[in-house]
Write a structure and sequence with these properties.
- By secondary structure, the chain is an alpha+beta fold.
- Helix content is 48%, strand content 14%.
- Strands 2-1-10-11-7-6 form a 6-stranded mixed beta sheet, with no helix packed on it.
Length: 478
């Protein structure tokens, strides 16, 4: 099967009848028609349709090495720097479609799977490891244009550095049995964004101390015993006037519960191998490739934020004030910095031990240090510039019933009342609604805690040549 259409995506997810619970109720019928999911599923469907547009076919797809059919560019294994550029261009096209507001668009997980499959050889001849299973699933996902969610972390029971769960109390998902059919998994994991509206769930456990919690596999979302327990929906309503972003891009987050789920052996990539569980993600280049995709999306998102901010400046005519100019420039500087880092990561790309080209790791590590810090300032800038205008935002119904008062009294330097409110409602939904505040939290912790990420950069960044330069200077300082 070549790349699928948006309708095929929706039909496929509806047909799964995955166990999804939201607000204490199990979703029945078509999930694509549920108020919490229909908007984001329609937005995701448009991404698949873009792949099929004649003008974008070369940018969004490539010819499969096995089927000779067109498959998604996000599955492409990079053998040259040009391949990295192709991947980036395809990612950007999707990010522009969602304005960077969907952090788990399909290309993110496609990239993750590609990174894992690229180092399948690392699993060869290691106990309880099945590289052939990983490669087979990668090919299956690529050829069928699958969508995936994932869960990498355990519930926040105890964040003590060395915490061992009581063996008699199962909270974090672990292996509780091994049968002729496969592994039996019981417990819970966090945090499956888009949980329930993807074909598959990819699970990677990196617990370094408990063999029962070290595993990697992928299973269909409708696997028996698998449950997606969703948080409250942040979709404010159907109106794209009132909720221009949440009505379209609200990606649900879910707790994943494994109720004695049987994972077929052919879907197990590794299990009960502490060394592999602790090292595989790092060896795979998951972070390197993943951050390349993330950075591309965040650039599109920052461009959108800049557009929203400048729209506010224009509509109420505050561009002549220097403090306003400084705030806009702060966003511009962040945008251009991220764009420069993205290009640098490609220019300084290197070939890994498995023969593939990876973006420069230190460069994308720097980028993920920057964005979690600057994005919350974007929210503050919008609030400071919008001020009371972010509270004077009547609903679509109010304008429908308006006898002219709202149109007159809410007009701005540039726009009539309704057009002005549309812009301010957009700014509100981006930064102040439940959807908007989640966006800020999401970007703060996208790749984990910033202090831990800083520690990783500190350890990985090569500083020895600079130290040697200082030592050489001191030696020759006569």
């Amino acid at each position: 099967m070549p790349v699928i259409t948006g309708q095929q995506y929706i039909d496929r997810i509806d047909a799964l009848q995955t166990y999804i619970s939201i607000d204490g109720k199990v979703v029945t019928g078509k999930v694509s028609e549920h108020p919490a999911f229909k908007g984001v599923m329609q937005s995701q469907a448009r991404l698949f349709d873009l792949q099929n547009e004649k003008a974008l076919l070369e940018k969004m797809t490539y010819v499969s090495p096995t089927s000779n059919k067109r498959v998604g560019m996000s599955f492409l294994q990079a053998e040259t720097v040009e391949d990295l550029v192709k991947r980036r261009n395809a990612t950007r096209e999707w990010a522009l479609s969602t304005h960077g507001l969907m952090g788990r668009s399909p290309d993110y997980m496609n990239t993750t799977l590609m990174a894992l499959a690229s180092v399948a050889d690392y699993l060869k001849d290691k106990p309880n490891c099945f590289p052939q299973h990983l490669l087979k699933f990668y090919e299956y996902a690529r050829e069928n244009d699958l969508t995936m969610t994932h869960t990498f972390i355990e519930p926040q029971v105890n964040r003590k550095k060395f915490y061992f769960e009581d063996e008699d109390v199962t909270i974090a998902a672990k292996i509780v049995d091994k049968t002729s059919e496969g592994l039996v998994i019981k417990g819970a994991r966090l945090l499956a964004t888009q949980g329930g509206i993807t074909d598959e769930l990819l699970v990677i456990s990196t617990n370094g101390f408990d063999e029962g919690k070290g595993f990697a596999f992928s299973i269909p979302s409708n696997t028996k015993g698998l449950k997606f327990l969703c948080r409250q929906s942040f979709v404010g309503g159907d109106s794209t006037f009132d909720y221009p972003l949440s009505s379209r891009y609200e990606e649900m987050d879910a707790i994943v519960v494994f109720d004695n789920v049987v994972v077929p052996w052919e879907r197990v990539f590794y299990y009960e191998n502490v060394e592999v569980a602790n090292s595989f993600l790092n060896v795979s280049g998951f972070q390197t490739y993943g951050l390349h995709q993330v950075l591309t999306r965040q650039i599109a998102k920052t461009e959108f934020v800049l557009g929203v901010v400048q729209s506010i400046v224009n509509t109420i005519n505050i561009g002549e004030y220097q403090h306003v100019q400084q705030k806009v420039v702060d966003i511009i500087v962040a945008l251009e910095t991220m764009k420069a880092l993205l290009l640098k990561s490609e220019i300084e790309a290197t070939r890994d031990a498995f023969g593939f080209i990876r973006p420069d790791f230190s460069t994308v590590q720097v980028a993920i240090q920057i964005y979690p810090k600057v994005y919350p300032t974007f929210t503050e800038i919008v609030q400071l510039l919008g001020a009371s205008g972010l509270m004077s935002i009547p609903s679509e119904k109010a304008f429908t019933a308006d006898d002219g008062d709202l149109e007159h009294y809410l007009q701005s330097f540039q726009d009539g009342g309704e057009e002005r409110v549309k812009k301010f409602r957009l700014a509100w939904d981006l930064t102040m609604s439940s959807f908007g505040t989640r966006q800020t939290l999401y970007e703060r912790f996208f790749f984990g805690d910033s202090v831990r990420l800083a520690g990783a950069l500190y350890k990985n960044y090569n500083r020895e040549e600079y130290v040697k330069r200082v030592e050489d200077f001191l030696k020759n300082n006569h």
